[in-house]
Amino acid sequence: MTFRNAADAYVAAHGSAWRNSKHRDQWTSTLSTYAYPVLGSLDVSRIESAHVLRVLEPIWIEKTETATRLRGRVERVLDWATAREFRTGPNPARWRGHLDKLLANPAQLRRVVHHKALAVDAMPAFMGRLKNAEGLGARALEFAILTAARSGEVRGALWAEIDMDEAVWTVPAERMKAGKEHRVPLSKAALAVLQSQRPGHRDTAVFRAPSGGPVSDMTLSAVLRRMGEDAVPHGFRSTFRDWIAERTTYPNELAELALAHTIGNKVEAAYRRGDMIAKRRQLMEDWAAFIRFGT
């Protein structure tokens, strides 16, 4: 049983429980790129710590997040091989009590990278320019800002997810980072952006590229480059969060719900079962008023 065969068997056994195909693709991609050149053809019974280190050490510092995920995947594949009795002994990819003695703590290596964002006070003037900008990318970016959504959620939005009468956009769990359905109250300004788009079949993208599929991430970024702004689409979520903290009295939990952030406190998460959409609706109307008129 080679490592590659064991990895294929592990994915076949567990892949159906993963929330989307992207997770499967990430597994395959990272193993193919980094693990298979060293481990792929090795019998799982012969894999030792030295082999695992040959995979991890070249990327441990420069690509820490990728390396830590890769380590976990190698560990799970080898655990599967042990459970299937293709190998015996301790797992050479385990972290606690083993690799943590040989590699630097990834938490100390990670550098926080802040997405470039516009200042809160710059938003009204920027939105005035954006509203006058032409093109599908400009409308998608405008909608992303008005909803404080991630660009991927906006680009993947389908007409079936939009309820114009109730003014709600329901993003399905499989397209959310936290894997949980997220309802977005749509302000009048956000509805106006949707009304500017030509409605299509329920299964078609709201912001549909000429090719027929959703617009690319580069399309939104290109809008900012053409406007001469040193910012990225995701940065507007930070601006939205800063506006709530600095200019409003809305509670922190409402901001976190609007941004669809995962609740770290398990007790708080257990008690917070609603999504406070009525209160969030007023929040999004206030946000739209501020970024359009500065009030």
From TrEMBL:
Coiled-coil annotated spans: none
UniProt KW Metal-binding keyword: no
Residue stretches making up the Core-binding (CB) domain: 1-82
Keyword terms of this UniProt record: DNA integration, DNA recombination, DNA-binding
DNA-binding is among the record's keywords: yes
InterPro entries hit by this protein: CB (IPR044068), DNA_brk_join_enz (IPR011010), Integrase-like_cat_sf (IPR013762), Integrase_catalytic (IPR002104), Integrase_recombinase_N (IPR010998), Phage_int_M (IPR053876), Phage_Integrase (IPR050808)
Domain Tyr recombinase residues, every copy: 113-284
Annotated family: Belongs to the 'phage' integrase family.
Listed name of the protein: Site-specific integrase
Organism of provenance: Brevundimonas aurifodinae
Lineage: Bacteria, Pseudomonadati, Pseudomonadota, Alphaproteobacteria, Caulobacterales
